Amino acid sequence: MSAMSSASSCESPSSRTLVIADDHPLFRQALMQVLGERFPGALLRDAEDVAALQGVLDVCGEVDLLLLDLHIPGAVGLSALSWLVGQRPQLPVILISANTHPETVRRAIDHGAAAFLSKSADVDTMVGCMEAVLDGRRGLHPGLEASAEGVDLSGLDTAEALGNLTPQQFRVLNMLAEGLLNKQIAHALEVREVTVKAHITEIFRKLGVHSRTQAVLALGSLVIAPPDALSRPPGA
């Protein structure tokens, strides 16, 4: 199922609406099949990147559960999670990743994830976690350890500020982090360059920064280090 068809067909009545956002087609399709079997009658939608996810959420309106890939294209580290928590505080987000280092799990929970799942978790573990989150439980990480202390909290202020960005501003900010020029961003978003400049001005104001470099550094505070880097002792 393509993201476009997902976003254009959220009109059928359903007891629940579940969304999967992941850029790996095979994983996404397999998970869609599992959810279809375990949550009969639920409305299932998928997206392969942040832009497609924004489209799905706009069309579907109320969503009961979102399964979000930690490394979803169009975002940096925990930025997509942080933006969603600010924009849709009632939407429970389960973060999914192959990076299950205890510090990664703890940071995800601290930044608002309802739960954290390993991509290698078995079907029963995944479904059980989803059911628990749908029942209102939070802070879950079945089968995974989460650091109890010493986790970097420097990105929490940026995470909160991201929630004030519009969907287009969020996309512009992440394009700035990719090193794109205003002209390139305008072309990608199919808008005028003056519109991009206006978005950047608002991004600076909302993040409390005064330059592109400062904005990118702020977003960088939400980057997730690879597991091998997290496992090294300080200074190694």
UniProtKB/TrEMBL annotation:
InterPro entries: CheY-like_superfamily, EvgA-like, NreC/VraR/RcsB-like_REC, Sig_transdc_resp-reg_C-effctor, Sig_transdc_resp-reg_receiver, Tscrpt_reg_LuxR_C
UniProt domain HTH luxR-type: residue ranges: 158-223
Name of the protein in its database record: LuxR family two component transcriptional regulator
SMART domains named in the record: HTH_LUXR, REC
One GO term of the biological process aspect: phosphorelay signal transduction system
Residues recorded with modification 4-aspartylphosphate: 69
Annotated source species: Chromatocurvus halotolerans
Entry keyword annotation includes DNA-binding: yes
Domain Response regulatory as annotated: residue spans: 17-134
Annotated signal sequence range: none
UniProt keyword annotations, A-Z: DNA-binding, Phosphoprotein
Lineage: Bacteria, Pseudomonadati, Pseudomonadota, Gammaproteobacteria, Cellvibrionales
Highest taxon of the lineage: Bacteria
GO molecular function, one term: DNA binding
Coiled coil: none
